[in-house]
Amino acid sequence: MTEAAANFNFTTDFDSALDRLLAAIDDIPDDILEQGDEALHKWLVEHGYREGNEKLKRDDDTDVLALLTRGELAARASIWKIAKCVASIVQLLATTAVPAAKLLRIKKYIKALGGTKDAVKLLLGATTKAEKLKVGGEALVALAAELLGISTVKNNCF
What we know:
This protein has 158 residues and is mainly α. The chain has a two-stranded parallel ribbon with strand order 1-2. The protein has eleven helices and two strands, in the order ααααβαααβαααα. The protein has one domain (3-157). The radius of gyration is 15 Å and the shape is globular. Helix 9 crosses helix 10 (129-148). It has helices at 3-7, 15-27, 30-35, 37-46, 70-75, 79-90, 92-95, 100-112, 116-125, 129-148, 151-157, and strands spanning 57-58, 96-97.
């Protein structure tokens, strides 16, 4: 995990988007995630999160966050950029082939933080890695890193 990911500030602009995304991920049964990406895709289609016939963007784990400093992140925080970032979070499950294993880790962190509402509240309230560690421990830092390690979020938020 990079320092930039740990220090990314999910402002209140992200409240609804994060709430919807984390609630949707939390709803996916663990046994579906444990079966892998194909079972996940089928479940998402059956439950209306995906159309089923669209070409999904592949999630990759390349780490462009390592190239960004906190100052660069702040300089990029325009209204348009925030809107694109929020939209990418809202549409994540519908448009991106995020590996089931990554979603299973995200679910684990949500549970460790006390559920979706608490996870969102903690993500919105803690701005630095030190604050994240203090209020949510490693689970909060890891959740932020997992979310920011998803290519569509990375591409639209940085």
